[in-house]
Here is the input.
Amino acid sequence: MFAFVIMPNHIHLIWRINENNGKETARGSFMKFTAHEFKRILKGKGDLLSQYAVNATNKKYEFWQRDSLSVPLYTREVAYQKMEYIHLNPLAEHWQLATNPCEYQYSTAKFYELGVKEFSFIKDLRDEF
Here is the structure.
């Protein structure tokens, strides 16, 4: 993973997909795994879990938005533009979670701005192009 920001109700990621996981896409595997983890973590917290309940024949809960946006990043310019967007997301007027991207704890902004690597799984996007 190269960059991320975790917001109160969504997440932005920049990652490289190397290959499919069997028949599943990497994105599908990620969404499936995290949904199972969310359900496991929320089990026993009925009020919170009930917020994700759906009336569907193939599932009881839905944690991820259907048709979430996925944008291929083929050029350095597009990748950097998307990374800037995700790092500025916590500062947006309707969020106001920080006044500087580096202040927001759940983001890779501090790594890219100050060189502080708080997440061991992060690889530098600047090395990719």
